[in-house]
Amino acid sequence: MSDIRILCIEDNAENRLLVRRILEAEGFSVLEATDGPSGLESAAQMRPDLILLDINLPEMDGYDLARRFRNTPGLQQVPILAVTANVMQGDRERSLEAGCDGYIQKPIDVDRLPEQVRAALQKTGTERQV
After folding, report:
1. Range of the domain at 72
2. Which of 60, 128, 36 is nearest to 44 (CA)?
């Protein structure tokens, strides 16, 4: 297993399972959270190398959560990829303004997800090999 930890914050169990299967097959270690508050707690405790963040979460949406990550010492430089089924005009820009480093559209492209994760990690200098 890789020492690269990906935190997947997603309220849909099927989507979490899909992400876990795809990324663990590529050698990543996948942590999970089902909502914003548990995602904040998990990130603070586990210090992931990358966060996959569903924008449409209960209690606290992904935009607010991304802003909180950007204001949390130790998490400010962690790359965040927004994941959403919403493809309304302005969603990508809104994600970037909130502090996300990239945007992945649902349904998740099984073939592209690993390369999207690796690209985000390379941009931030996470050099460890998977």
Report:
1. 5-123
2. 36
